[in-house]
Amino acid sequence: MSFSPLIRQLIDALRILPGVGQKTAQRMALQLLERDRSGGLRLAQALSKAMEGVGYCRQCRTLTEDDLCPQCADPRRDDSLLCVVQSPVDVFAVEQTGFRGRYFVLKGHLSPLDGLGPEAIGIPELLARVADGAFTEVILATNPTVEGEATAHYIAQMLIPKGLTISRIAHGVPLGGELDLVDGGTLAHALAGRKTIRL
Amino acid sequence: MSFSPLIRQLIDALRILPGVGQKTAQRMALQLLERDRSGGLRLAQALSKAMEGVGYCRQCRTLTEDDLCPQCADPRRDDSLLCVVQSPVDVFAVEQTGFRGRYFVLKGHLSPLDGLGPEAIGIPELLARVADGAFTEVILATNPTVEGEATAHYIAQMLIPKGLTISRIAHGVPLGGELDLVDGGTLAHALAGRKTIRL
């Protein structure tokens, strides 16, 4: 019992942040109180504005406070490419690569055991988006996990009959690091997906 | 440019937290938006209440929103012992040890080069507190750094003439770990401060 109630409440509230335990929360609370109260107030405002104001893009369903997210609203993007991802944070990851097509964000992956079927993760909306758009290729960029693969496979089954090119991001060894640290499954994919070198 | 303005502002604001960089701030912002909006709002409220409401204890000068902090307000504590620390977080550390005397919190350590003299860190208030109280011993628990030692030495010089016992927390090898990993200065202190074993 050595912190006053307001400080204790702040420490408890900070612990909802991912990766923040008791000790880190304490350090954060005391540092804000002692060194940066205006920064703390700014954070409080940014939090409440974002929690109350941010919704989902009407078209791609990523997080945004506008009707359309910056990616959907940008007229200079390639309208023939659609990249399907599992969550809004993946949009950011794919953007970093320089991809400049359109996006569609699922709500996670198919998980029948948890009751998450095609409707729950937004497959009907994806089919509607594909039907509306002028896409020639749909890139399936769900996570390289069992569930992500299953989700990609399911979507491919639905879209291939529509005459579109459906692609999956490549599996293989990541850049950097050493071959003996790569797991067997990844290495098997990398071997099976080998490419002929042409000089 | 792939996050909307409100999300970008939230990510920027989260970066004022100690130890939080761009990537962690992104993960925190998206996790709150996707999974725990009510937690995010609770955090916003706790932050603004604490930043606006928390001040300093009238007696020991630790952080609290009340006139007296829980330690000063507790009538069951030992009024003969005063523990002097450098910052509010140290009160918590010393409390963990089971110490149940009184505290006085300095504002950091003496640092003449930064213009921080005895007045700036609150030595006059410490002397007044000692004069008011019924202390028989003052424990100097400033940090075991050059500046912390200098601050402890300065305070000892001021208080010893008043006929009080002035003590400094012991330096030595920490519990656990191995001797060859302890730095030379610490080991020298541990040797110099060795204690006779009595069975």
TrEMBL record, chains A, B:
It holds the Pfam family Toprim_4. InterPro entries: DNA_Rcmb_RecR (IPR000093), Rcmb_RecR (IPR023627), Rcmb_RecR_Znf (IPR015967), TOPRIM_dom (IPR006171), TOPRIM_RecR (IPR034137). One of its GO terms (biological process) is DNA repair. Coiled coil: none annotated. A zinc finger (C4-type) spans 57-72. Gene3D superfamilies: 3.40.1360.10, 6.10.250.240, RecR Domain 1. CDD domains: TOPRIM_recR. Keywords: DNA damage, DNA recombination, DNA repair, Metal-binding, Zinc, Zinc-finger. Residues 80-174 form the Toprim domain. The keyword Metal-binding applies. The keyword Transmembrane helix does not apply. It comes from the Bacteria. One of its GO terms (molecular function) is zinc ion binding. SMART domains: TOPRIM. May play a role in DNA repair. It seems to be involved in an RecBC-independent recombinational process of DNA repair. It may act with RecF and RecO. Belongs to the RecR family. HAMAP family: RecR. This is Recombination protein RecR.
